[in-house]
Amino acid sequence: MSQAFDVVVIGGGPGGYIAAIRAAQLGFQVACIDEWKNGKGGPAPGGTCTNVGCIPSKALLQSSEHFEHANKHFAEHGITASDVKIDVAKMLARKDTVVKQNNDGILYLFKKNKVTFFHGRGSFVKADGGAYEIKVAGAKEESITGKHVIVATGSNARALPGVPFDEETVLSNDGALRVGAVPKKLALIGSGVIGLEMGSVWRRLGAEVTILEGLPTFLGAVDEQIAKEAKKAFDKQGLKIELGVKVGEVKAGKDGVSVAYTNAKGEAQQLDVDKLIVSIGRVPNTIGLNTEAVGLKLDERGAVVVDEDCKTSLPNVWAIGDVVRGPMLAHKAEEEGVAVAERIAGQHGHVNFNTIPWVIYTSPEIAWVGRTEQQLKADGVAYKAGTFPFLANGRARALGDTTGMVKFLADAKTDEILGVHIVGPMASELISEAVVAMEFKASAEDIARICHAHPSLSEATKEAALAVDKRTLNF
């Protein structure tokens, strides 16, 4: 006899586990199915984000930043450190510990909220009398039913055509997090979030890093002024970034990888490296979901087709996160998970795509919310802009990190904040103030007139807001 649930969530990543917990809080009987395994074969919920994405990459970024500070910046603080070395195995072990803490935390939250967890791969079997039968293929095969189903199966790394990931020399984000020794030469194809973050990790640890980007502009989704400031910093650090390249044949062997490409001038080039990280985007993960068994509609990319409320083509079947339209961000998936659980309960869940923040956790960090200056110009929107450099911020000087700036964009007539863009220290934390302000439709003057603690990095946010009206106080 199949176990029956009100809500079955397929996928235990950021969107899935949050959806399951919120549905349980609302009084539903909930099951969550997830197939991720740890090194011992046990359950490891949290999806790509927790296991091979957001969390482990931040752990490595932190470790590598400590190493670089010890080697290059301690002396200016009067700290003498000689013969500083990196134990890569220990660094990776710490990363794995951080991941496990998050895995275990999710399992605890399931238990706390009375969510029934199934370890295995979930797939549709059939629609059955107003519910859906779901097969769980794990250590043992089980069958459960759900009145509502939330598909939260995430995404997979996109491989280069004809160049599969072997996770030894040709690496996805997964393999990039498990490199056992610092490579002498490392190449990355794609200068997006994963490429820049992983490039930063191994560059700090001593690798010679080259990033090959097909687009003619750096970080095309980022405000142009901010992207230029970031590239100047990366160039100074020693990251070699080539734009406008066309990648040709890639040959992988036991001793490394050879990448043939044409540079922006049309010249044929060859790059021989120890490791190659491919970071050219991600694709929705619907393989093995058996959507055809129930007639669940997919688009040409393999993503589940949903409306603005995350409803699919089937009654009482929902989909969220990377497996649907919109930005592939963990926090976007979480918000959709909460919204869907509340909609199932008859409430009015809401996700505002216009105020979803974006962050790249390099050094300097890059964060933004809302529209860029280029988008406003293209849309014919009259706007005012204000910037403030961290060079003029007292806390940034004390930290020894004055790279970058805060930039405000506001409506020329109403002064409503249309976008905030930051490159510099702790941008990932500073952007939250802008998100809150935009959710409440604040004006730049609202931020300019709020008292910010001194000395703090957040004063740069206040000063940039003041700059919209050309009245900065410290620059």
Automatic annotation (TrEMBL):
The keyword NAD applies. Transmembrane segments: none annotated. Keywords: Cytoplasm, FAD, Flavoprotein, NAD, Oxidoreductase, Redox-active center. Its EC number is 1.8.1.4. Gene3D superfamilies: 3.30.390.30, FAD/NAD(P)-binding domain (3.50.50.60). It comes from the Bacteria. Its cofactor is FAD. Its main location: cytoplasm. Residues 5-337 form the FAD/NAD(P)-binding domain. The active site is a redox-active disulfide bond. Belongs to the class-I pyridine nucleotide-disulfide oxidoreductase family. This is Dihydrolipoyl dehydrogenase. It comes from Pseudorhodoferax aquiterrae.
